[in-house]
Amino acid sequence: DTKGMKIALSNNYAGNSWRQAMLKSWEKVTKKAVADGIVAQVDTFTTAKNDVTEQAAQIQNLILQGYNAIVINSASPDALNGAIKQACDAKIIVVSFDGIVKEPCAYRIAVNFKQMGADEVEYLAKAHPEGGNTLEIRGLAGVFVDDEISAGIHEAVAKYPQFKIVGSVHGNWAQEVAQKEVAGILPSLPADVKFVVTQGGDGYGAAQAFKAGNRPTPQIIMGNRQDELQWWKEQKDANKYETMSVSIAPGVSTLAFWVAQMILDGKKVPQDLTVPFLRIDQAGLEDSLKTTEKGGVANTEYTAEDAAKVAGGK
Amino acid sequence: MMPEQMIRWARWARSEPWIWSWLATLGVWLATIAFTQGRGSGEVLTAALVFATFTVIVGLGQMMVVTLGPGNVDLSIPGTIALAGCAAMKLTDSENPLLLVGILAALGIGVAVGMFNYGLIRLLRIPPIIATLSTSFIVQSAAIAYGRGIRIKPAPMLADFATARILGVPVLAMVVALGSIVIGIALARSRFGRSVLAIGQNMRAARLAGIAVDRTRFATYVLSAVLASICGVVLSGFSGGAALDMGDEYLLASIAVVVIGGTSVAGGKANVPGIWGAALFMYLLVTMLNTFGASPGIRLIMTGVIIIGVILVAGGEEQ
Amino acid sequence: MCLAAFPAISLTGATKSFGAVRALERVDLVVAPGECLGLVGHNGAGKSTLMHVLAGTLAADAGELRVGATLLGRGYSPAVAYRYGIRCVFQELSLCPNLSVAENTRIFHGALKGFGWKAKARALIGAKLDEIFPGHGIAPDDEVADLSIGKRQMAEIACAFTVTDTPLRLVILDEPTSSLDASTAQQLLTFLRTEVAKGTSAILISHLLKEILKTSDRIVVMKDGKAVDARPAAQFTRDTLVAAMGTVGEHGKAEAAPGAKRSALRASQPVVIRAKPHTGGGQELLVHRGEVVGLAGLAGHGQTRMLLQLFDGGRLADTTVSEPVAFIAGDRQTDGVFPLWSIARNISIGSFATLLSGGLLNIQKEDALAQSWRDKIGIRTPDIGNPILSLSGGNQQKALFARALASLARIVLMDDPMRGVDVGTKQEVYELIRAEAEAGRTFVWYTTELDELAYCDHTYVFRNGAIVAGLGQAEATEERVLASSFHEDSAA
Amino acid sequence: MIGLTAVSNPKLLRSILPALSLALVLGAIFIKLPTAMSYFGLNLLLQYAVPIALATVAQMFVITVNDLDLSMGAYVGLVACIGATLLHDNPPLGVLALAACLAAYAVMGAAVQLRGLPSIVLTLGMSFVWSGFAVLLLSTPGGHAPDWLHNLMALPVPVVPFPIVAAAVIACVVELGLMRSSFGVILRGAGGNSKAVARAGWSLLAAKVAMFTLAGVFGMLAGLSLLGLTGAGDAHIADRYTLYSIAGVILGGGEFVGGRVSPAGAVLGALTLALANSFLNFLHISPDWQIGAQGAILILVLALRALIGAMERRP
Ligand SMILES: Nc1ncnc2c1ncn2[C@@H]1O[C@H](COP(=O)(O)OP(=O)(O)OP(=O)(O)O)[C@@H](O)[C@H]1O
Ligand SMILES: Nc1ncnc2c1ncn2[C@@H]1O[C@H](COP(=O)(O)OP(=O)(O)OP(=O)(O)O)[C@@H](O)[C@H]1O
Ligand SMILES: [Mg+2]
Ligand SMILES: [Mg+2]
Q1: Subunit partners of chain A (3 or more CB pairs within 8 A)
Q2: C57 touches chain D (CB under 8 A)
Q3: pLDDT of D56
Q4: C305, C328, C419, C460: which to mutate for ligand 2, most atoms within 8 A of CB?
């Protein structure tokens, strides 16, 4: 029974649309859970600028405030270990998602980012067995998600050597930066760049850079942002453009919430859970576009039953 | 006579500090196209022109502030870019008729931020570095609370303007070049420009020469913030919407182009062509390192070493 | 007096130039052990520069320095000077304002270190202060920034006389009494005599001639970077000393003297300035249109502040300045020139309103204005586009004159503007001022050169921030002005 | 009574202002969250303030000689990365790398004094260099803190929580070294009136190099202590320390020019800043406005200083 319990969200960054969608989902689901009397109180905490020290101090503040569980999207997989351990020692359940933590006492709701990178290449290999020149847009240097996705892409490319990565830039998961970096490297690339593999939040920027550089539009893997899907739809209607879109659903925060609630309720949950990423294919484009908020991110929110399924599935 | 010519040239280069950033731009560009064996030599310049434009817009404002003399700097530029961009996109709501409202709101935000900055500096005597930083926190919060990270498409007119080209040359770059010329002329020939330069050289002497020191400093901080808000609007137009983090990279960039472009951190000496040279150089440097496939670590180290190298040259010159 | 074979210190042929300014020209100076040497001379005569050379803080361009029998060569520095027991109380404050008095003593003495240094420093400076200035009211732990200027001066003087590891040989006091009141100054001079009697040598610089005459054994007079006279103190009287110091302009005063027409200005022209010094009080400053009014008195007695008060006149309640003003700084480097700019720009900054066409400054007009003033005032440069710093100091000063005179200002405030200006140039400027005054411009002129008062229609003498005398053109003789300026003579 | 004398004596008021602000914030926290008033609570509240306090002291050394270090955060991050990699895997090499960092700081000081380089630009450039090396060492977060470091930071001190002991020790050591020792006087004097110090025969170059090197040492301690707390390194672990350290010095009663600083004040300022952040957490301010609230607090305290400064100037 978790009626009297308090859960906190410790979030390390709020400055992009994915995070804002994540916070919105969290707010919506947890408010309802409180109203339904499932838990007593849920609060949200966000640090200013993706700062490790600040988040560590924040976690300690949450320990002090007597939360029963902390759900965390972390600034660093390792550097918060000290604070997480203290939380566990204080008998607090810690559930991490998206930016997961490596501290063994915490629960992880992980997305197989490596798999995500590999899937992008698999999809391209299936659609275009002949392969071709590929541009890679990476995320923020020095962050492990970036490393994981990139590693997945490179492993898959090794399997399909007909795909050749001719350039690689860091787009910082931001449209403006991706656009700028792609525009810079594009002139030095061969004329026939056929594919762009991405990490999310950078597809639209890449498309614009190709357009500005008077290059034929390559097949760009999208990252579930509404503006990306919109662009894709326009291309599809105009010239049967085909691609796929893949990203982690912001609503995974709600899954983390339900998992935390289950654990508090005394259910047995494995320490490491995996959620599938949210993938949109050519066929599902229209439906996804319809359900995605203008300017937002394609999303799924989870229910307690979903959580039970994910936790029990393994 | 060869040596005589060289001496003349050297003297000229010394008196025109912008020459170094343009030479560096040339060097980096040559290195890049040498690596690609000439492929894309023209396009890379066009791309550089497009993206340097945004840095130039904020760089010009930062240049005016830095020219006011030691200690003057505007750290609130990123926050202002984000808030102005978000506000303009949200108010415009992708509708051409509302564009004017959005732009006016953005400009209003710029004016307000500038006034707030100078109020902290003058009335509360908070050092500019901390005053503008505190402002940037507040402005950033406002951007988050107001924008909520929703990416609204710019009005088509704005987007067209921001991405339009005439004979392959970006229209925006032409407009900003025009603006740079205006600022250059203002520096050389307007009361405001001369006042800024005089204050930066010697504030006491400026006061005794009858210059309205307070009014000029106030106007300069407002100008910087307004340019940042303009950057926020056109950047949103260019990249298909405003994002909360779109100003972040312009904090260091604005300061770096000012320093590399030959503007003196000791104040009193501004250089408009240098801002362009430095902005192009910074962009082409990243492009070069991307082309070479340099790792992020090497990239950072190179950037730092170059900034220090440039002030070593410039510092030696002043003694 | 001591009969040692060698002097305490001897300097021969000291020469020092700052750019075009010849601060010292082949000066010889000898101080015997146990001698108190008085050093006098007009402002800018080179006294302080000479002391800096002795203290090792400035390297002379030429000259030999001997301490006792030892010739000190190239490596002479403050640290070496300290080792030889040479101490200097500089004219401008040399204490760290962020430190306490005891801590400043520590800066002075490298030997004050290790455990308990602070107690030692406190005791040392406390005892010396008690010895020199009984009833001084300074605690060793007081932060210097919190002390009044007089107390800072006392602390610095006492510090110079403290002894740790090296005995005192020579103590240099550069205008030590300028910020002390009469009784404290007397305490210092009394102490100085007892210290000298113990065999320490001293050099005393002061503009208060009575002090010098009373305290020193021998007096050296400096003028324009040269030592022009040196005699035992007993052979000087106040008058002969003033005569030795005096710098009578080569062109004489006759041509400067205004006619009766000008002295009538006071009666005929309206008052354009009416102000009472914020700092002191005393008389009111009254200036009529077209007058040249002099501010006189010893340096640092509130004249500059008066000028600043007039400059801000419009914003101050108790100050009436009824016409637009311009300011000509004497301290060019900190108050005047814009070092990165050309001569033309330095001139035109004062005349913006007249040079605009279509909202922008007209460069042709700017150049024409600068050209015309170059010719009018004789700025010696081939090209007014040259940087201002390419000019000699006197010519830079002319550019500042041009800035003010070219402007629309009807009142010109001048803050001792002839510093570093050579004699010929001065004559040109005097004539220019006269001509402008005839044309109806008003001048308020702070000067440290008594001769220049001859060009003034009326003179106000400042002491301790107050106006203590207002003298008509005929009354402003050197004697009258000195008498009003010098504290000791004020009753006379 | 005491309040009255303090108000009538601005100088005293200013010197106790850092302690006053800290007491205020701490009091507010205790009211909001009484459980914080315990060994365990204080430990949690203040643990991460220790490295910030060290970085603030490092910044204070630089500010004492009228310079500013904009690379402090990046430097602390680099030290943490060195600690988590080289120092853990190959201690001699790690020590060598740390020594090289100190040497770089000494060279920075010499460059500022000899070439008259503006420290702001020099350290801005260095911040890129530090970050670059950190990313080269740890391209993705990880590594391990050496055990001794980890154990040191978790030192169970009886009665008084470790962070308070550590802060007190830091404040005392620096207070003794800079404010009480005979050489500290010279270093502060160099910031107050460098001409006077040179006239007394001291080398300004040595003073500048000493101060920058000290900044390097304390920045290093900040990086290592932070690593001891986190257990693993990350190139961006301390990016915000630059700002924290500058603000901490100013909050602690230091001034940008004039050599007027206070080590105890700087430590208190750092603690205040860290606690103010916690307090904002306890207030449950909307996450959107949490950064803005930080800016507002900064302005508030600095405005207080301006007010006291005006009171001091009036008499
Ligand atoms: N650092 C300097 N740079 C340039 N000129 C200098 C410098 N120091 C002194 N001078 C010039 O050298 C000359 C002698 O100055 P000095 O200070 O020795 O005069 P002084 O006799 O001490 O005058 P006072 O009685 O006003 O103190 C002056 O013309 C002064 O302007
Ligand atoms: N140009 C200026 N602008 C602002 N403040 C000034 C200026 N000149 C002087 N002051 C201030 O006015 C005060 C007095 O100046 P100063 O030391 O020159 O003494 P003074 O007694 O007015 O004049 P003088 O030494 O010329 O006889 C000082 O506090 C100084 O800082
Ligand atoms: Mg002198
Ligand atoms: Mg003066």
Answers
A1: B, D
A2: yes
A3: 95
A4: C305
Partners of chain D (3+ Cβ pairs below 8 A):
A, B, C
**ipTM score above 0.90:** no
Looking at the domain that runs over B52-311, which CATH code has it been given?
A: 1.10.3470
Query: How do strand C320-321 and strand C271-275 relate by DSSP bridges?
Result: antiparallel
Q: What is the pLDDT of residue A289?
A: 87
What residues sit around ligand 3, an ion, with C-beta below 5 angstroms? Answer: C 48, 91
Two tokens at B11?
A: 């003297």
pLDDT, tens digit, 9 for 90 and up, residues A303-313 = 888 888 887 75
CA–CA gap between residue C229 and residue C242 (Å, rounded): 12
- List beta partners, residue A196: A135, A220
Residues of A with CB below 8 A from B93's CB? none
Under 8 Å between Cβ of C282 and C260: no
**For chain D, which residues make up each domain, given as ranges?**
20-308
Among A207-211, B184-188, D63-67, D305-309, the minimum mean pLDDT is found in D305-309
- Interface touch D185/C99, C-beta < 8 Å: yes
For C119-145, write each residue's pLDDT tens digit. Answer: 999 999 999 999 999 988 899 999 888
Helix (H) or strand (E) holding A193: strand A193-197
C-alpha distances (whole Å) from A212 to each of A188, B36, B42, B51, D290 are 15, 20, 13, 12, 39
Tell me the residue type at B29.
W
Contact D295 B142 (CB under 8 A): no
pLDDT tens by residue, C397-456: 889 999 999 998 999 999 888 766 666 677 778 888 888 888 889 999 988 777 788 888
C340/B197 touch (CB, cutoff 8 Å), yes or no: yes
CB D222 within 8 A of CB D76: yes
Q: Hey, what CATH class is D20-308 in? A: mainly alpha
pLDDT at C334 over 80: no
The average confidence (pLDDT) of chain B is: 87
CB proximity B101 to D under 8 Å = no
Q: Which of C15, C16, C21 to probe ligand 1 with, by most ligand atoms within 8 A of CB?
A: C21
Strands lying side by side in the sheet with C466-472: C281-282, C466-472, C458-463, C292-296, C442-446, C411-415, C325-328
pLDDT digits (tens, 9 = 90+) for A249-296: 888 999 999 999 989 988 888 888 888 888 888 888 888 888 888 878
Nearest CA in chain A to B55: A180
Element housing B45 (H / E): helix B41-67
- Are A202 and A220 in contact by the 8 Å Cβ rule? The answer is no
D291 contact A CB<8A: yes
Q: Do residues B236 and B151 lie in contact, with contact meaning Cβ atoms separated by under 8 Å? A: no
Mean pLDDT taken over chain A = 87
Q: How far apart are CA C260 and CA C345, in angstroms?
A: 40
Closest-CA distance, C377 to chain B, in angstroms, reads 19
Q: Is residue D6's pLDDT more than 70? A: no
Query: In the prediction, which pLDDT does C247 show?
Result: 45
Taking phi first (over 0 means left), then psi (-120 to 50 degrees means alpha), and beta for anything else, what does residue B264 get?
beta
E strands, C303-403, in order: 320-321, 325-328, 356-357, 360-361
Q: Which residues contact C116 (CB under 8 A, 6 or more apart)?
A: none
Domain ranges for chain B, please list them.
Answer: 52-311
Nearest to C305 by CA among C398, C180, C206, C416: C416
How many C-beta atoms surround the C-beta of residue C261 within 10 A?
Answer: 9
Query: What separation in Å is there between the alpha carbon of C416 and the centre of ligand 4?
Result: 8
**In whole angstroms, what is the distance from residue D121 CA to residue B306 CA?**
11
Query: Cβ contact (<8 Å) for D117 and B311?
Result: yes
Q: Which residue of C has its CA nearest to B266?
A: C340
Could you tell me the pTM of the whole model?
0.83
Pick from B2-6, B181-185, D200-204, D308-312 the range whose average pLDDT is largest: B181-185
